[in-house]
Structures are given as structure tokens and as C-alpha cells.
Design goal:
Layout lengths: L21 E6 L4 H11 L7 E8 L3 E8 L2 H4 L3 H5 L5 E7 L17 E5 L2 E11 L2 H10 L11 H9 L5 H11 L2 E8 L4 E5 L8 E5 L2 E5 L3 H5 L3 E5 L5 E5 L2 E5 L9 E2 H7 L5 E2 L2 E2 H15 L6 E4 L5 H11 L7 E3 L12 H11 E3 L1 H4 L3 E6 L6 H12 L4 E6 L21 H4 L2 H8 L3 E4 L2 H7 L13 E2 L1 H4 L7 H5 L10
Parallel strand pairs: 14-23, 17-20, 20-21, 21-22
Antiparallel strand pairs: 1-4, 1-10, 2-3, 2-4, 5-6, 6-7, 7-8, 8-12, 9-10, 9-11, 12-13, 15-16, 18-19
The structure holds 1-O-pyrophosphono-5-O-phosphono-alpha-D-ribofuranose, glutamine (GLN), iron/sulfur cluster (SF4) and magnesium ion (MG).
Family: In the C-terminal section; belongs to the purine/pyrimidine phosphoribosyltransferase family.
Catalytic activity: 5-phospho-beta-D-ribosylamine + L-glutamate + diphosphate = 5-phospho-alpha-D-ribose 1-diphosphate + L-glutamine + H2O
Keywords: 4Fe-4S, Glutamine amidotransferase, Glycosyltransferase, Iron, Iron-sulfur, Magnesium, Metal-binding, Purine biosynthesis, Transferase
Length: 490
């Protein structure tokens, strides 16, 4: 096989734990694009890098718009929405896991579109294809001409090579060759399609508003348009919606689902419902569990906003230590992820979070955050809290140590940049210069998400690879590229 030039894929090349992507689709309303724009706005926390919408109108065909930046800055303009007519549309908000990361190019922004003999189709993908490099190499050798660097584009080319006569059948063919995680919202001229991989790693829900059907990464985007949650698209299921009817298909071999446990901890919005459970309630329960596992004598419990807040409330309720807003977040500051250098990144934390000095002075403070990835946030927060005159600082973290990268749609740094991959909890305490740091146990986290017996080690109920190193799908591209050595191969 000739050696193809190395693609600029670098799925391990991030700085911190970033979001993933959000997908949304709607069939039925006369102005699908407005619904999709609202849905994407509600899913903005899943990706702030770029967004795109594709619609279809019977008279004029497919229409597309792809833009960098936030939904509110792009998809609220009447002129843009008017250029996306039709009653069927899908959209995507992106945080890249592959392709031109950091310096994203517009051609990597989804949804992707393909023209087939039976008509056009568009797809929007949340997740990451773990054999994308191998597939891409094979497809290029067989004549495919790739337009982007995105892993997701493989799906379109695999569909093009399928001999099936309908788009849903071609999608099934394509997705049977794909490994990794995918929650996909797709459309043809007449159909809205939703698919989840057999393990159901990433979320996808089905909603309804009268005759209008909706597919969305999270339920918070159903709420924004007043749609009701019908059910989750099940792991391994494909739903095809046409003429007001929902058909269910099972294209993949059944497996025990392994939903991403980090969706409960951090990614999803607290007002979403996952697996029938309120994300807020789960996070609060994690805080309760954490207070039982790692009690401490202190005067105040403070959250590292935003995502640490529900767990901090739970910790306070279970421990009886008053909750207080010791750290205030500037709501107008974007996320810290775009800053390229260490210096600016550190500044980013300060721009976003500030200490409520009068409250903190002389107090023993418990700081609750959802996760420690690189440790940038914890280090800065500790400095700020001590600067403000805190008597003691105790970190309580609402997830186990993040010691392994994610290959399923979340952009995590290389293993050597993950604090927990290189230090024990006690070394972290010294490194961060705090009085104590404790993480919830993996079993404690499982209990908080509703698994009373904790983690089933022989058949874990969730994907928890970033904590355990137990990868439910072998990240073959990364292993071949020498980018990761799995525990079992060590
Ligand atoms: O150890 P680090 O590398 O600093 O990463 C961990 C931090 O990153 C996330 O917050 P983020 O600032 O991304 O957003 P949030 O406002 O949603 O909590 C997470 O909630 C932690 O606070
Ligand atoms: N975070 C994601 O789900 C990203 C989807 C896709 N892998 C991309 O890079 O665009
Ligand atoms: S590795 Fe972690 S973040 Fe990635 S899917 Fe698994 S649990 Fe979620
Ligand atoms: Mg945070």
C-alpha cells in the first residue's frame, strides 16, 4: 500500500476536556431552519467552534449554510434563515475531534451533503470514528475524493459505494463499516433519519410537537421549541421519519449499551433528561455521594461554576456545610478553550471566574468541580482563593481522576497532559498546593447515576474509559499511529 501523506488529524492534540458536538433535525414545520437554529442554540454548550444547517424545499431543492462561531451570531439573521427554505432541516454545532482542529476550515463544518443516484442526503454526526484513518485510506485508494479532513465524511463516501437502492439502506451499509461512536441526524428530500451506534455512546432523543417530529442530542433543545420528549433513539437503532410516520430499524448486532458516563458528569446541560434521569439531579446525587466518601470539616462549600454547581449543592446538602457563591462567573466571557498559549489560557480562567473576596476571607473552603483534566482551572482557582485570604482549601471532584483520553467524540489532551495520568491524588495535592483533594470513586459515580450496586466490572453499564482505561471500542487508528498504548496491551 503506498504511503499516503499524513493527514492533519490529531485527535489527541487538545489542551483540556472540550465539549463534543450537538445535532438537531426537524421535519414538518413550514420554516424548518428557524426550528433548527433554536435547537442548535440550546445545544451550543456542545460545540462553539462552528455550526451549519441544511434544509430541503420541494420546489427549490437543498439549501445549506455553514458558519464559524456561535449560533446566535450567525443563524439569527432573517436574511440567512430566509435563504434556508423548506419544512425539513438538520443542523450541527461543532467542536472538532478530527480534521482541522484549532484552525478549523469551513469545509470541515457539518452537516455534510452528498448527491446520490436516488437524490441528495445530508448528515450531521456527533461522536468520533475510531477507524476513520483506515477507512479514508481505503476509500481514497478506491477513488473517493474527500472534500474535508473530518472523520465524519467517510460516512458519505461509504454510502456512495453502497449498492443499496435507498438512502437509509446505504446508511446502514456505511455505518456497519464504521467503528467508534456516532449519534447521527440525517435527511433526504423527504425523510428525517436518526441513528445511534450499537453501544449508544452519545445521546440522541426523539421529540414531537403536534405533527412536527424532532431529533436532538439533548432534551433541552426540545424544550426550547416546546416539543415533548417521545423517547430516546435506542442504542443500535435507526429511526426513519416520513409523512408523519416513525419507522424503527435495527441495523447492527445487539450489544450491551455503554452510554458515556461523562455526559452525566459534565457535557449535557443540567436541564436535560438522560436515560430518564434529570442531569441536574444526577449531578446533585454525585455531590451527596462525594460528601459521604470524602467528608471534610469546613465553613463553606463553593462550586467552580458552571458545571460544578449541582454537585456542590449536593455536597452542601449532605454535609450540612453552607453553600455559598464564592466564585463568580462572568456570563459574558466565552469559554476558555480558544486560547492557544499557556499564558493566555491561564488568563482565560481569570477572565471567566473571579473570587467573591469578602465571603472567602478567613474561611475553610471546599471547592467542588466536576473534573480535573489538565489542572489549569484548579491551579488558578486555588491561587485566587488563597489570595482572597481563605484559611484552608479542599478540592472535591465530582468524577474520578481523568487519566485516559476519549476517542469517542470528546476532545481530550494527550495522556501526558492529563494531570491524573501523571500524578497520584497526593501528588496533585502538593502540585496544586491545597490542603486536600479527593475524587469520587468510580463505584460512587455509578451509584449516583442510579446503579445501586456500583460498576459491574465484568460488563460495565457505561463507557467510563477516560477514568478506567477500559475502552469499549478499540481506538485502532490511534493505536496504529502509536498515539496510545492501551492497558491491556501494556
Ligand atoms: O483541569 P482543566 O484542564 O482546567 O479542565 C477542567 C475544567 O474544565 C471544565 O470547565 P470549563 O471551564 O471548560 O467550562 P464550564 O464553565 O462548563 O465548567 C471542567 O468543568 C473543569 O472546571
Ligand atoms: N465532537 C464531535 O462529535 C465531532 C464530530 C466529528 N468527529 C467532527 O470532528 O466534526
Ligand atoms: S471516554 Fe469518557 S468522555 Fe469519552 S465516551 Fe467514554 S466516558 Fe465519555
Ligand atoms: Mg468547569
Amino acid at each position: 500500500m503506498p504511503d499516503l501523506p499524513r493527514h492533519p488529524f490529531d485527535p489527541l492534540d487538545g489542551d483540556r476536556l472540550r465539549e463534543e458536538c450537538g445535532v438537531f433535525g426537524v421535519i414538518g414545520p413550514p420554516d424548518a431552519a428557524s426550528f433548527v437554529a433554536l435547537g442548535l442554540h440550546a445545544l451550543q454548550h456542545r460545540g462553539q467552534e462552528a455550526g451549519g444547517i441544511i434544509t430541503h424545499e420541494a420546489r427549490t431543492g437543498f439549501h445549506a449554510a455553514h458558519r464559524f462561531g456561535l449560533v446566535r451570531d450567525n443563524f439569527t439573521k432573517a436574511s440567512l434563515i430566509d435563504s434556508l427554505p423548506g419544512s425539513l432541516g438538520i443542523g450541527h454545532v461543532r467542536y472538532s475531534t478530527a480534521g482541522s482542529k484549532g484552525g478549523t476550515q469551513i469545509r470541515d463544518v457539518q452537516p455534510f451533503f452528498g448527491e446520490f443516484t436516488m437524490g441528495g442526503a445530508a448528515i450531521a454526526h456527533n461522536g468520533n470514528i475510531t477507524n476513520a484513518n483506515a477507512l479514508r485510506r481505503e476509500l481514497i485508494e478506491r477513488g473517493s475524493i474527500f472534500q474535508s479532513n473530518s472523520d465524519s465524511e467517510c460516512i458519505i463516501h461509504l454510502m456512495a459505494r453502497s449498492i443499496q437502492r435507498t438512502i437509509p439502506e446505504r446508511m446502514k451499509d456505511a455505518l456497519r463499516r464504521v467503528e467508534g461512536a456516532f449519534s447521527i441526524v440525517a435527511m433526504t428530500r423527504t425523510k428525517l433519519i436518526g441513528v445511534r451506534d450499537a453501544l449508544g455512546v452519545r445521546p440522541l432523543v426523539l421529540g414531537r410537537l403536534g405533527d412536527v417530529w424532532v431529533l436532538s442530542s439533548e432534551t433541552c433543545a426540545l424544550d426550547i421549541i416546546g416539543a415533548e420528549l417521545v423517547r430516546e433513539v435506542e442504542p443500535g437503532e435507526m429511526v426513519v421519519i416520513e409523512n408523519g410516520e416513525v419507522q424503527s430499524h435495527r441495523p447492527f448486532e445487539a450489544r450491551r449499551p455503554r452510554f458515556c458516563i461523562f455526559e452525566h458528569v459534565y457535557f449535557s446541560r443540567p436541564d436535560s433528561i438522560l436515560g430518564g434521569r434529570s442531569v441536574y439531579e444526577t449531578r446533585r446525587a454525585i455531590g451527596v455521594e462525594l460528601a459521604k466518601e470524602a467528608p471534610v470539616e469546613a465553613d463553606l462549600v463553593c462550586a467552580v461554576p458552571d458545571s460544578g454547581t449541582p454537585a456542590a449543592i449536593g455536597f452542601s446538602q449532605a454535609s450540612g456545610i453552607p453553600f455559598a457563591m464564592g466564585i463568580i462567573r462572568n456570563q459574558y466571557m466565552g469559554r476558555t478553550f480558544i486560547e492557544p498559549t499557556e499564558q493566555i489560557r491561564n488568563m482565560g480562567v481569570r477572565l471567566k471566574l473571579n473570587v467573591n473576596r469578602a465571603l472567602i476571607r478567613g474561611k475553610r473552603v471546599v471547592l467542588v468541580d466536576d473534573s480535573v483534566v489538565r489542572g489549569t482551572t484548579s491551579l488558578k482557582i486555588k491561587e485566587m482563593i488563597l489570595d482572597a485570604g481563605a484559611a484552608e482549601v479542599h478540592f472535591r471532584i465530582a468524577s474520578p481522576p481523568t487519566a485516559w483520553p476519549c476517542f469517542y467524540g470528546v476532545d481530550t489532551p494527550d495522556r501526558d497532559k492529563l494531570l491524573a495520568a501523571n500524578m497520584t491524588a497526593d501528588e496533585m495535592r502538593v502540585h496544586l498546593g491545597v490542603d486536600s483533594i479527593r475524587f469520587i470513586s468510580l463505584d460512587g459515580l455509578y451509584r449516583a447515576v442510579g446503579e445501586a450496586q456500583g460498576r459491574d466490572a465484568s460488563e460495565p453499564q457505561y463507557c467510563d474509559a477516560c477514568f478506567s482505561g477500559d475502552y469499549p471500542v478499540r481506538p485502532t487508528d490511534m493505536i496504529s499511529a502509536g498515539r496510545i498504548r492501551l492497558r491491556e496491551d501494556a
